[in-house]
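Encode chain A's predicted structure.
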Amino acid sequence: MNNQASKTCKIQKKRLSQEQVRLLEASFDSGKKLEPERKFQLARDLGVPPRQIAIWHQNKRARWKSQSLELDHGAMQLRLDAALAEKRELEKEVGLLRAELRRAQDMLGAAARGGGGPPVSSQLSSCCDETGGGGGSSSLNEDVGCSANWPNVEELYACLMAKPVSEVVNERDYWV
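Encoded structure for chain A:
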């Protein structure tokens, strides 16, 4: 008898027509959770058992969740790729800036040795070392406690840019 009842249930369950699926999709779009009264109303409107409506909604929610996770993963992957590309660009820029800093230290050291003073390069290394603190300070000498005799800004800029000091017009030129 139990076997016969299960055959009857299988016979009662029928495939949904395209119109029924369209109505169920519209219902799902208006609300992901299926309220009992809405389930019975849909069952009456579509002529199918309420259990079939509930199962359809449950399956649709599972598919929707998995699709949204895939979309979220794709968006996160794009953001990660962009962040990694930006990181690589920043690392290149840091490498270039470090090379420029070494060049400036060497030029200052050469200028200081040529003037008979102590080598500025070693003083710069101890004052400007990344692990030495002070990072981002506007007054390196005060914050780090370095007592190096720094050349004036115009001379430093002219030295780094290979311009004669007479061509350095004003502070605005430093940031071009």
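Residues 116-147 have pLDDT under 50 and may be disordered.
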